[in-house]
User: What shape does this take?
Amino acid sequence: MAPPVMFQILDDLSAITGAEHSRVTGDIVVAEPADSNSVAEILRYAQQQRLSVGIRGEGTKQRWARGETPRIYISLSRLNRLLEHPWQDLTCTVQAGCRWGALQKGLAPHGQFVALDPLFLDQATVGGILATNDSGPLRHRYGSLRDLVIA
Assistant: This one.
């Protein structure tokens, strides 16, 4: 059973994300913000309460790094869209929770793709691939995702 303080944190974060997008899992509160402003509010709350925070997408690379178990996980599962694709410029704007396979499908109608082959193509998110620098063997020819990011 989770400590009572976790339910207070849950109530506070539910006010930001909506009750259906926050939950307690063991000793961790998972919050799923809908936009960058909500992410900022959660981080501000965590700082004020002196709570550790972890970020996660689909969790495919969660075990690649060990560290302190956070009190709050910010799940980027709702920040999952390809926002812009001015194909003539060979650029796109994508949210961190966008799955790699969805990004590639969004670029394909214009004959474009990101020349990387990270693990777990249909589950891994752009943010997770950036955070872990997972790029696969194609990085030897085209560079890693970090090399391809403009901003």
About this structure: Residues 137 and 146 are 15 Å apart (CA to CA). The chain has two domains: 4-75, 82-148.
